[in-house]
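Sample intake sheet
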Amino acid sequence: MPPRAGLPLVHSLELSRPLAPLRALAGLPHAFLLHSSLADERPEGPRRARWSFFGADPFALFRGGDPAEAVETFRRVAARVRHASGDVAPGVPFTGGAVGYWAYDYARRLERVPEFARDDLGLPDFVIGLYDVIGAYDHDTQQTWLFSSGLPLEGLAAETRAAERLATFRARLLGPGRAPLGIERSPEPPTVRGTFTESAWRDAVHAVQEHIRRGDIFQANLAQRWLIELPNATLLAPALYESLAQLSPAPFAAYVGAGDHALLCASPERFLERRGERVETRPIKGTRPRGATPAEDERLAAELLASEKDRAENVMIVDVLRNDLGRVCEPGSVEVTGVCELERFPHVMHLTSTVTGKLRAGIDAFDLLHACFPGGSITGAPKLRAMEVIEMLEPVRRHAYTGAIGWLGWDGDADWNVAIRMATVTPSAIAFHAGGGITADSDAEAEYRETLDKAEGLRRALGAVIGEFALRPGVGAGA
């Protein structure tokens, strides 16, 4: 297909698989892959896993610091772009804009949260790049589109830059395949340190329940973290993500290269999607492991659907998100369009609800994000008090875990996930979390097992690359 007249330039090309760009672009700074690697099992309802997006080498990068600078720069550039994604390539929702993450700890800029948890990773609370070259992979047709805008330049200079950048990326993507990374496994299993022993976890669950009995909160999301010390871990990040995508595919998965660290995410949960005036959030609450046989799988599904505790937990979070959307949506427009629907994933099944609304005039995606961040499904109810309880009980900061990863287009549309089922890879370690909602009816041992179920996909994916390891009660020292 010849380049499109005007900007952005557009090329179609054939790629062997949607993961191919990750290896092709891994040598460039701040490469990313927003990877819809698992289609919905339900035959009904809208498709949520049709598109994957990739890119690298942003023309502007914001790494912590003043978030207002990132927001204003995006708004200023977007005001110069005269097209919507649908005008460039009908049906493609994202052809250029911002990609990155907002860490859970970004919430400290939005709310007064006490500081007790240790910041042992020392990473920024957001990393956002503005990308002039974006690739889009259509999982329905296996077609790949490459868009090059020439930003931040204008006029003839932009046209020249767009053509040059398109040629550079096209050559990388269609060049010889990258050789597999050389991986030397230790003869010993990796050393894994957790933030909770099983007894310390039980104490933390009981502390949450005491807050509930006192009327402080209705529920809080409690998480534990495991840390694997591994020299030069970031060199393995692309291979680790490929393993995760193959063993634990998810509709809102992501790889984000962030310079001195990388995020690997297999999230099943959408945080916020904006399409024009319409916004959607899809909170997950309620989990069971997948069964070893079809009969066991159906038994567990029926158990989850019948669980009053899990349904009550889900409905409480729906109310939190209805309230959050109500801050930026037109009065009366916020609706719950699905409640406690069963969704199956490779290692677990969940109850998912859907809340939609119509944004008020003058509200953009940044306003929406700030009104709802962080997601209620990974904090609790009421949100701020639950965050205070979390801060007192979790010994280390969450960083990107339970934050948001995604994209924001020049036309104002956006899609962010809830950053769960994820690992943060630093030069010296791999950190990953799992958690769950604690209510008055929670059983501490069952909640502990649920965290292990949720971490299973990551354990298998990481172990396939660095060597097998186990997550057992008492695996790490309590903190």
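Comment: The chain has one domain: 9-466. The chain has a mean pLDDT of 90.
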